[in-house]
Structures are given as structure tokens and as C-alpha cells.
């Protein structure tokens, strides 16, 4: 089992480095530094409240489901970060590039990825046609977390799963 974990960790470090190695490209830097904020607290909270205020009927219920999913997903993220105190990749993997003043807390799971998928999932279920825009948006937020040297691929995958489950449960609770 230990050998398998070592192989998995090695593969995920390689994937992280393949994404992170492009850190010095100006356009990619601008894109990923911007898109990563879409999964941050300021944007996700503001977007959910704005959608609640501007919508009505079933769309408003979806907005409420999205807000509840965002709130509910924050609790397991915090608990899992305490149970699995994994250091961020830029602290452990040599030559990982990151921006000034990077996050210092634990990396598993990715809170930004969890947040964006918890907010997007109710809308994906309510209006599946939005999937062509919303799924790539969520994936870009996840990739941005690796690009910035802040998360391993498994952090991002776990965050995506956690956010999707929270978003789905809250959507079906409201609909």
C-alpha cells in the first residue's frame, strides 16, 4: 500500500509540475490569476446573493440552493483540512512557482474548487444547456489552483467532487 501511495504521489507531483511550469507566461498568468478568484469567497458569496436578488420563481430556488451548497460545503472542507493536514505543493516540491504571499493553510481539499462547483452544480442541474460554459469554468478554477502551485491534482479532484455533491444535494432539497 505504501508503494502505491508513493507512486500516486509521484504521478500527481509530475502532473502539478507540468501545469505549473508555464507560470512565467504572461497571458496564462493573467488568465489563471484572474479565474482563480471566481472560486474565492468574495466572488462566490457575492454572486450567489446577487443571483438570489435578481431572480424569481424556480431560478430563485436554484440560487438559494447554490447559496446553501456554498455554505454547506465549507464545513466539510474545513474538517477535512484539519483531518488531513497536507502541506501545499510549493512548500514541498522544489521549483514549484507561486505568487507572493501564498496561502499557508493546508491544501486538501481545494476550497476554491469546492466553492465553484458547489455554486455551479445547481445551475447545471436546473439548466443543463449551461454545462458548455459552467463546466469549463469550474475546471479552469481547479487548474488555476495547480498552476499557481497551491494545490495538488487530488486536492482539486476532491474539491470538485465535494462541491458537486453539495450542489446536487442542495438542488434536490429545494426542487
UniProtKB/TrEMBL annotation:
It is found in: Cell membrane. The chain crosses the membrane at residues 30-55, 61-80, 123-144, 156-174. Its main location: membrane. It is a multi-pass membrane protein. GO terms for molecular function: hydrolase activity. It comes from the Bacteria. InterPro entries: PAP2/HPO, PAP2/HPO_sf. One of its GO terms (cellular component) is plasma membrane. Residues 59-171 form the Phosphatidic acid phosphatase type 2/haloperoxidase domain. Pfam families: PAP2. Keywords: Cell membrane, Hydrolase, Membrane, Ribonucleoprotein, Ribosomal protein, Transmembrane, Transmembrane helix. PANTHER family: DECAPRENYLPHOSPHORYL-5-PHOSPHORIBOSE PHOSPHATASE RV3807C-RELATED (PTHR14969:SF62), SPHINGOSINE-1-PHOSPHATE PHOSPHOHYDROLASE (PTHR14969). This is Ribosomal protein S2. The lineage of its organism: Bacteria, Bacillati, Bacillota, Bacilli, Bacillales.
Amino acid at each position: 500500500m505504501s508503494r502505491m501511495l508513493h507512486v500516486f504521489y509521484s504521478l500527481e507531483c509530475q502532473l502539478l509540475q507540468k501545469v505549473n511550469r508555464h507560470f512565467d507566461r504572461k497571458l496564462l498568468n493573467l488568465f489563471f490569476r484572474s479565474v482563480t478568484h471566481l472560486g474565492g469567497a468574495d466572488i462566490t458569496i457575492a454572486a450567489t446573493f446577487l443571483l438570489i436578488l435578481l431572480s424569481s420563481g424556480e431560478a430563485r430556488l436554484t440560487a438559494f440552493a447554490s447559496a446553501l451548497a456554498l455554505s454547506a460545503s465549507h464545513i466539510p472542507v474545513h474538517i477535512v483540512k484539519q483531518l488531513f493536514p497536507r502541506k501545499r505543493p510549493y512548500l514541498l516540491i522544489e521549483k514549484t512557482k507561486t505568487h507572493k504571499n501564498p496561502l499557508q493553510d493546508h491544501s486538501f481539499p481545494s476550497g476554491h474548487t469546492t466553492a465553484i462547483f458547489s455554486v455551479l452544480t445547481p445551475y447545471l442541474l436546473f439548466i443543463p444547456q449551461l454545462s458548455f460554459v459552467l463546466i469549463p469554468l469550474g475546471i479552469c478554477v481547479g487548474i488555476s489552483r495547480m498552476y499557481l502551485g497551491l494545490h495538488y491534482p487530488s486536492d482539486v479532484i476532491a474539491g470538485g467532487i465535494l462541491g458537486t455533491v453539495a450542489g446536487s444535494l442542495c438542488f434536490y432539497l429545494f426542487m
